[in-house]
Specification:
mainly alpha
């Protein structure tokens, strides 16, 4: 194989590592304590949400600061269907995802139609999430500030999305993460994904080449909203509770953004890597600084600032940079050997 075709960091290598790690973790998951299994679930959960956010903000370059609008729609809609009508949360999850996708199409058309982008688009999405939070706080059907408490069933029930142990939740969120990673990988290697990236890099140039800017930015937001809503349903069923501040507050959006930026925006595995790093650091800091509440958050913030200054493309950016350097070194070695042979 020639040096020009040599690439030590092919995409499928990432998949092999990920699937091997997932299989290994699945094998030992039954041996983990409830606390450690909970930490692993949170890592996968935030990686899922970060991957959903990454579709519109990473690939299409439309920075959203109001993704909790879709998260909350998924959480509340599935919970209300289950509590009020006894509809299985699995059905509510898909229904909530479709409702959030419709909301994404509406928000996308409304904002992109008037060419809002950058900070203006971010503030627009934030305004929609705040509007929904206020509605949930004042609407009696949502329980107002008290929120919705999911009724507990005896034992485990797959239909009711309730289990006696955390292990089934691990397998569910792992499956959800694999699904959204495959979608991200498909976008990364499809014509649709190329349109997204073209818009991200230079919207005017993409438009001049015939790319329908409004259409493809809206599609990116719809896909992202659908998956984000699925994450909302998972959270509600895992925690058995949802309220307006959790569902439509800024905390969830910040977690999506921060973890994805640390791992690498616009990359397939960036959200997973960022989630694993930050969740691990956060848990370790909580353990060692338990009596000094809030100190771990300060450390968390300092770490992010340093990463943004010195590694703006995240961990995946470093990996790709190292891969390119290694590839150049090998190319030079091949050229040197070829020159020596010709002599």
């Amino acid at each position: 194989m020639s040096a020009q075709n040599y690439n030590p960091l092919k995409k499928w290598n990432y998949w092999l590592v990920f699937l091997a790690a997932a299989c290994g973790l699945s094998w030992v998951s039954g041996l983990l304590s409830s606390y450690l299994l909970h930490v692993v679930i949170l890592i996968l959960y935030f990686a899922f949400l970060g991957s959903a956010w990454n579709i519109v903000s990473g690939y299409a370059g439309q920075f959203s600061f109001g993704h909790t609008a879709f998260f909350g729609v998924g959480a509340y809609f599935s919970s209300l269907l289950y509590v009020e009508s006894g509809v299985s949360p699995w059905i509510g999850m898909i229904a909530g995802g479709l409702l959030a996708a419709g909301l994404g199409a509406f928000i996308g058309y409304l904002t992109f139609r008037f060419k809002l982008k950058g900070a203006f688009f971010a503030l627009s999405t934030f305004a929609f999430s705040e509007m929904l939070r206020i509605i949930a706080l004042n609407w009696s059907v949502t329980g107002k500030a008290m929120g919705i408490l999911i009724p507990l069933k005896q034992g485990s029930s797959l239909q009711d999305f309730q289990f006696a142990s955390k292990l089934p939740y691990y397998y569910i969120i792992l499956s959800m993460l694999i699904l959204v990673l495959f979608v991200s990988y498909g976008l990364d290697h499809s014509r649709l994904g190329y349109y997204f990236k073209a818009i991200r890099e230079d919207e005017e140039a993409a438009g001049s080449l015939g790319v329908n800017i409004l259409k493809y930015k809206t599609i990116a937001l719809v896909i992202s909203a659908f998956f984000t809503a699925l994450g909302g349903t998972f959270y509600a069923q895992y925690m058995f509770y949802i309220d307006p501040d959790i569902a439509f507050g800024t905390n969830v959006t910040i977690e999506m953004i921060v973890r994805t930026m640390l791992g690498g925006v616009g990359t397939v595995f960036g959200p997973l890597i960022g989630s694993a790093v930050l969740e691990s650091i956060s848990e370790v800091m909580r353990s060692f600084l338990g009596e000094y509440k809030g100190v771990h958050i300060m450390f968390y913030a300092v770490l992010l600032i340093l990463v943004m200054i010195f590694f703006p493309h995240g961990v995946m950016g470093l990996v790709k940079k190292k891969g390119k350097e290694d590839s150049r070194d090998i190319t030079k070695q091949h050229e040197l050997v070829g020159n020596q042979e010709s002599e």
